[in-house]
Design brief:
Length: 349
């Protein structure tokens, strides 16, 4: 089991920077220039990678009008599967050019294959990793084919039972590949925050000994940021140039400014998680004086008794610790003391 995977020069796992994937999906609306602009937007947001999906309508389904091929629920209700994928797919001839553009910008570029021909196609492009979609987690021959490339595999787990995830991970490992990361995912479009169950993320990590993260289809950025706080080391989120340019996936995608806000919030969250630590930070040391301590709050003469009226626990923190109040009361002043003097043992007898 490997608690770390490596994609190109980036290690992914706990105690490493969160790996942020911008999912293009169908948001190019079959326009190559728009696909390029999405890659440029991903680079500006601070994402680590841009991800495509590699399929054609014929590699995913068949052209059939039977009722079984009509979508019954979700964002695409009423659409025919073949026609939806025809509208949404990314032309394969775009892939090499988009990869070159992305890599020139410093972005990792990889994709989700949906059949064995796509695995071969992407392998010939020498992509650095493979993504497995939630719906394909049960396609064991496809998983075996991907595993045999030896490339890192990031696999979404939407809809999957623990037993199904275990079978998928076992299939990949049995094929000789232990470079696996798992993503908690809710396969609804858009997904509701209350259906995300992000506490599953650390459980996945413990159960399979792999880096874990989230593939998020909720609206907004709260869910991925919360996932990072719970230990997610990968975040995948759809990116579109504008939700007003309607497409199959635009409704649950982030616009560039929103995606950048998410990236910035994730980076801040990483810093805030830190380590288990007690005591004062360097900056907190300057605040120590604002603690309470014991002060003389009335003018006193030599021999006067210390009482609750002339000794109090107040700010700032330059006097004796408050734990000594019971030992001070009833004793006497060793010299004249002016109001506002920090209490110290040298003025007590």
């Amino acid at each position: 089991m490997k608690p770390l995977i490596k994609i190109k020069d980036k290690y992914i796992g706990t105690q490493k920077p969160v790996y942020i994937i911008a999912e293009m999906s169908a948001n190019h609306n079959q326009n190559f220039d728009k696909a390029v602009n999405i890659i440029k937007a991903a680079e500006r947001t601070g994402a680590d990678a841009i991800k495509l999906q590699t399929y054609t309508p014929d590699t995913l389904t068949i052209d059939c009008d039977r009722d079984e091929f009509k979508i019954k629920g979700s964002l695409w209700k009423g659409k025919n599967l073949y026609n939806l994928y025809k509208e949404a797919y990314t032309p394969w001839e775009w892939h090499p050019r988009l990869k070159a553009i992305a890599e020139d910008m410093g972005l990792d570029f990889f994709s989700t294959p949906f059949d064995e021909t796509a695995v071969d196609f992407l392998s010939n492009m020498d992509i650095p990793a493979f993504k497995v979609a939630s719906f394909e987690i049960v396609d064991l021959p496809l998983l075996r084919k991907i595993a045999q490339t030896g490339k890192p595999i990031i696999m979404s787990t939407g809809m999957a039972t623990l037993a199904e995830i275990d079978e998928a991970v076992y299939t990949i490992r049995e094929a000789g590949n232990d470079n696996i990361a798992l993503l908690k995912c809710t396969s609804a479009y858009p997904a509701l925050p209350e259906e995300m169950d992000l506490k599953t993320i650390p459980h996945l990590g413990r159960a399979f000994g792999v880096p874990c993260g989230v593939s998020d289809h909720t609206m907004g950025i709260a869910v991925p940021v919360a996932a990072v706080a719970l230990g997610a080391c990968i975040v995948e989120k759809h990116l579109t140039l504008s939700r007003s340019e309607q497409g199959p996936d635009s409704a649950f995608s982030l616009e560039p400014d929103e995606f950048k806000t998410m990236v910035d919030a994730i980076r801040t969250t990483e810093k805030a998680i830190g380590h288990v630590r007690y005591g004062r930070t360097e900056k907190e040391k300057k605040s120590r004086s604002f603690r309470r301590s014991l002060f003389v709050v009335q003018d006193m003469k030599t021999g006067d008794k210390f009482t609750p009226e002339n000794v109090r626990s107040i700010r700032p923190g330059f006097g004796l610790h408050t734990r000594y109040i019971e030992k001070i009361l009833g004793r006497t002043a060793s010299s004249e003391i002016s109001k506002g003097t920090p209490l110290s043992w040298k003025i007590v007898r």
